Amino acid sequence: VSTCNYMDNFLFYPMYKPTVEGDVRIFRLPFPADRILPTISVRDIGAFAGICLLDPARHAGSRLLVSGSELTLPEMTREFTAATGWRAEYRALSADEWRDIAEAAADAQG
């Protein structure tokens, strides 16, 4: 089973978690706003893996590529707002800004 980006990262992984400015959650990644970012929930990956495990003869040697939503990052923030009721925005980061966030997250995790 091969996957794309995990939507759960936006909840649990420090580099992906939105920051809060006032009452707005700000999502920041090093991608332009029009970039499509395929995502999937780890729960959905488990369901696909279960299908493969329940019928191993059918899936042996094959590669199952699973993906969920394919949204731009502003579309993703609109979906987040619709699902949570919290205002959200997307702001693109430079590669240097992303590196700084990644280093701070790594330092925080020890």
Query: Averaged pLDDT, please?
Result: 88
Q: Approximately what portion of the residues adopt beta-strand conformation?
A: 25-35%
Which strand order do you get reading across the main beta sheet? 2-5-7
Number of H/I helices: 5
Helix content: 40-55%
Number of strands: 8
Task: Give the structural class.
Answer: alpha/beta
Question: In angstroms, what separates the terminal alpha carbons?
Answer: 31 Å
Unreliable segments of 5+ consecutive residues? none
The general outline is: globular
Query: Major β-sheet, in short?
Result: 3 strands, mixed
Rg from C-alpha positions?
17 Å
Question: What is the N-to-C succession of helices and strands?
Answer: EEHEEEHHEEHEH
In short:
This protein is of the alpha/beta class. Helix content is 44%, strand content 26%.
Topology:
Elements: E1 2-3, E2 5-6, H1 9-12, E3 19-21, E4 24-29, E5 36-40, H2 42-54, H3 56-59, E6 65-66, E7 70-72, H4 73-84, E8 87-92, H5 95-109
Parallel strand pairs: 1-6, 2-5, 4-8
Antiparallel strand pairs: 3-4, 5-7
Descriptive terms for the model:
110 residues; single chain; three-stranded mixed β-sheet; alpha/beta
Walk me through the structure.
There is one protein chain. This protein has a three-stranded mixed sheet. The protein is globular and about 50 Å long. The protein has five helices and eight strands. By secondary structure, it is α/β, with parallel strands linked by helices. Helices cover 44% and strands 26% of the residues. The model has no long low-confidence stretch (mean pLDDT 88).
